Amino acid sequence: MTGDDSQSDTEEFRTSRRKRSRIHRLDVSSLIGRKLVTLVLVGTLVFLMLPIFMTIVASFGTTWTGVLPRGYFNLDNWLTVLGLAEGVGVRQGVISGLAFSTLLATGGMVINVIVGVPIAYALTRYDFFAKDYINTLAILPIVPGIVLAVAFLRTYPEMGGSAFGLIIGYALLKSPYMVLTVQSSFQAMNLQQIEESARSLGASWIRTFLTVIVPNAKNGIIAGCIITWTLAAAEFNFTFMVHARGPRPFSLFLFENITRSPVLQGAAAVSVYFAIVTAAILILQTAGKAGFTTVEEQ
């Protein structure tokens, strides 16, 4: 064996050794990284979900003097909060108020879909004069509810206290969430190519938009519906300023039970909100998936 061959073998050995060492370090780093990310994720979920879990558990208790509530599986708090119990101080008409709030939030959500989806499409699909300014105006209502309530009452005083005024206010206040969420879905699509393909097959623009563009953005639309509905249902500042008569919206229902009732009744009121929101999310997801069908799913 010559000196050159020996030197070449030595270099190959060193290169192979460095590669094995690098692969080993990558394997160890990847393994530790996965465990660390999983640990952080689980810890974050526990931290966020624990207050919700404790609130729901406490709503079925009778006393809460220590770390954990006591006397579980008691429905008195729920019955009192929902106005189904008998006694002094039990509020009546709670169920009608919850139904009223559901209709208000749904009305605002529907307006956001009708108005927000075309706005998000136009801002994503076309380039036009002052596009950036219009995009800013589209998300401008994302301000505290009390600010919008004062401006709303000053501009439309005749709508103050009416259900229609609350619906319009909810739609205006939560519209940026719909526009931004749907806009993200449209930005992930090649809108020009999809539109040109559909139009080349003889579809009109409106048919292309309703049967091709919108179904492909269904995830963003469903997410926008969920966000706008849940935020509108619990909107307090705007509701407190504008509402004057009729059934109490849900945010005022929460406020009264949290500030003027025992702790466990307040926990029951919050649990009612979680139950309604969970049901609304499931309904919106089911209805959205059933209502939109893309070409790939057919």
UniProtKB/TrEMBL annotation:
<feature type="transmembrane region" description="Helical">
    <location>
        <begin position="133"/>
        <end position="153"/>
    </location>
</feature>
<dbReference type="GO" id="GO:0005886">
    <property type="term" value="C:plasma membrane"/>
</dbReference>
<keyword id="KW-1003">Cell membrane</keyword>
<keyword id="KW-0812">Transmembrane</keyword>
<feature type="transmembrane region" description="Helical">
    <location>
        <begin position="98"/>
        <end position="121"/>
    </location>
</feature>
<feature type="transmembrane region" description="Helical">
    <location>
        <begin position="36"/>
        <end position="60"/>
    </location>
</feature>
<keyword id="KW-0997">Cell inner membrane</keyword>
<feature type="domain" description="ABC transmembrane type-1">
    <location>
        <begin position="98"/>
        <end position="285"/>
    </location>
</feature>
<keyword id="KW-0472">Membrane</keyword>
<dbReference type="InterPro" id="IPR000515">
    <property type="entry name" value="MetI-like"/>
</dbReference>
<dbReference type="GO" id="GO:0055085">
    <property type="term" value="P:transmembrane transport"/>
</dbReference>
<comment type="similarity">
    <text>Belongs to the binding-protein-dependent transport system permease family.</text>
</comment>
<keyword id="KW-1133">Transmembrane helix</keyword>
<feature type="transmembrane region" description="Helical">
    <location>
        <begin position="263"/>
        <end position="284"/>
    </location>
</feature>
<protein>
    <submittedName>
        <fullName>Putative spermidine/putrescine transport system permease protein</fullName>
    </submittedName>
</protein>
<keyword id="KW-0813">Transport</keyword>
<feature type="transmembrane region" description="Helical">
    <location>
        <begin position="159"/>
        <end position="180"/>
    </location>
</feature>
<dbReference type="InterPro" id="IPR035906">
    <property type="entry name" value="MetI-like_sf"/>
</dbReference>
<feature type="transmembrane region" description="Helical">
    <location>
        <begin position="221"/>
        <end position="243"/>
    </location>
</feature>
<dbReference type="Pfam" id="PF00528">
    <property type="entry name" value="BPD_transp_1"/>
</dbReference>
